[in-house]
Structure formats: structure tokens, C-alpha cells
Amino acid sequence: MKIDVVISADYIMSDKLKDKTVVVIDMLRATSVIVTAFINGCKDVIAVTSIEEAKAIGESMDNDVILGGERNALKIEGFNCSNSPLEYTKDLIKDKTVIMTTSNGTRAIKGSTNASDILIGAMINAKAVAKELIKLNRDVIIVNAGTAGQFSMDDFICGGYITDCLCDTLGEDKVELSDIAYTALYLYRNNKDINEFLKSAKHYKRMIELGYNDDLVYCTKKDITDIVPRYNKDRIVI
């Protein structure tokens, strides 16, 4: 199995994704939100790139819809939820469709549609993602959403953890890493306390400034669920 990493949504090359399995990671916080929404029983998630499209889809559907997302890490005016996974509670979203737009994560998802499969990955479901990748048995491209088009430490170390899970299960002789994938793996193996490591990250500091401390604790937890959402025909499902 070959593993490569794309450092942000701005660096996705659609032609390189063909016949590959993509894992999209935006652990702070879009993909953590999506996984959590399914933990708490949502029906499906529709990921879009613009606020206008999210609102239009919401207006075209029935009342079983939740609008969620952010711009510049802040809740969008008129939406039900921000980009905090802790807001997507069972009481609010069970059996509902979540329509979601974020600055980076949903753009990375929509930019990866040329892949054979798109899995939604985060720290909270990393081992389960690795197991699913082994079942699919294709070469893997880990797409980091990044922050404002740039490299983001949080997504990178999460990809390193998923790569570590693959190496541990398959054996390192069965995994062929690109230079950047090897770097992500090395980074994770030398910084397994994710929360502590990320305190130096720009995006982490932004979350602290905005008071999202509880989100950071939650999103840096490892393997709290076996749920692996996947993109399928314009919707994310399990």
C-alpha cells in the first residue's frame, strides 16, 4: 500500500486521486464534527463550499435539517450550529440531515471527489479509518484540509497517527511511504501527546483565543468511536 499526504485543500491535484482512497482530515474541527454527528445519530451530512448553497439546500428540504459550520472559526449567522463538535448533540441532530460548510474541511472534501472512495478521518476515529483502508486495499492519499490554504500541524499529526496504525497492522514492509507521509509518521511517533504538541500550532492558539478549550480536548482524543463516515453521491453517510 502506497501512502501520500496532501498538505492542504489548496494543493489537491484531482488527477492524482484517481483509483485511490482519500482520507480527508480537518481535525480542528470539521471532520471531528462530522464523525460526532454520526455518533449522535444524524441521518447524513451534506458538505458544501458556500454559505449560500447551504442555505439554499436547507430551504429546499423539510424541517429535519441542521445548518452547521463556520467562517474564520466563528458561527455563521442564521445557522443552527457552529463548527464545535460538542454542539452536535443527540437531542438536536438524531435522524436529521446536517448541511455543513466550513472554511477548509468541506472544501477539501469537495475537492477530492475524483477518488475511488473518500473517508472522513480525525483523531477520534483514526484506528477505525486505518482498518477501513486495509479493507479497501488501495493506495491512500491523506488530504489535510489545512488552514487558509496553508499547512496545519494538527491535520498533519493526525495523518501521521493513521499512518502509524496502518504500519502497525500491515507491517512496515507492506507500506510504501512518500517522503511527506514518512515525515508525518515520524512526527507522530515522537509526539504522541497530541494536545501538548499542538499547543505550538497557530490554529490551536486561535481556538484558545476564541474559548474553544473543550473542543481542543475532545478533538485530540484518540479512537473514541469505530464510525467511519464516507462521501457517497454528494452525501456523507455511514
UniProtKB/TrEMBL annotation:
Its cofactor is Mg(2+). It is an enzyme of class 3 (hydrolase). The keyword Manganese does not apply. Coiled coil: none annotated. It comes from the Bacteria. It holds the Pfam family 2-ph_phosp. The keyword Repeat does not apply. Belongs to the ComB family. NCBIfam families: PRK00886.1-4. This is Probable 2-phosphosulfolactate phosphatase. It comes from Clostridium collagenovorans DSM 3089. The lineage of its organism: Bacteria, Bacillati, Bacillota, Clostridia, Eubacteriales. The gene is comB.
